[in-house]
């Protein structure tokens, strides 16, 4: 039974991932989310329903548009797969509880942030504002202390605001400030600390590796929202365990 349920969760996840791909594209083109059917970005031919099956269609079409034959970006199956695996991970940890549904919705926003910042070095207010509402309401639904939520939101935003002011916008962008606040609303201040530490640690390692490989130099900017969004999701899964381990370590 658990195998069948997990498979259903995965199918729902990749289907939502397919929808998120459409949202990411329309955020970029500034089109309405519900306006018209999906189309090939190269030849603009309307995509047939049979070619919209998550994951399967990409491989059946051999990664090419049926009409123009141009390559389809690997972003599409990878986002679908990531969403499916993320939903499965949340289900295996939380089951069909409020936590699963809250974190699943929040994960959808994090995936959009991850991909859009990776591709365009932007974190959009059109994503962050509804994400903040979802983060606040989700935490309240899960019974997180409102004070912890408020401190988390303020601390997350203030942390990046100070960096923004100190560097005059050279180290981070304004989107990082809003993402920090959203992280605090989703996680509360205690798990926010965990996410921040891991994000900076991983970001530093990746940055050093890129400089060492000469793909970046010391003045280059990294899309830090990529690390923040990914680690926020991981904190949904392991944040409580990390805090418990740290408290036990100190004691």
Total helical segments: 8
Order of helices and strands: HHHHHHHH
Helix/strand-derived category reads mainly alpha
What helical percentage do the residues reach? over 70%
Polypeptide structure, described:
With 251 residues, the chain is an all-alpha fold. The protein has two domains: 1-94, no CATH class; 97-251, no CATH class. The protein contains eight helices and no strands. It is globular and about 60 Å long. The model has no long low-confidence stretch (mean pLDDT 89).
Task: Offer a quick outline of the entry.
With 251 residues, this protein is an all-alpha fold.
Question: Topology, please?
Answer:
Layout: H1 2-29, H2 56-60, H3 75-94, H4 98-120, H5 125-141, H6 146-167, H7 174-212, H8 224-250
Helix pairs in contact: 1-3, 1-4, 3-4, 4-5, 4-8, 5-7, 6-7, 7-8
Main attributes?
2 domains; mainly alpha; 251 residues; globular
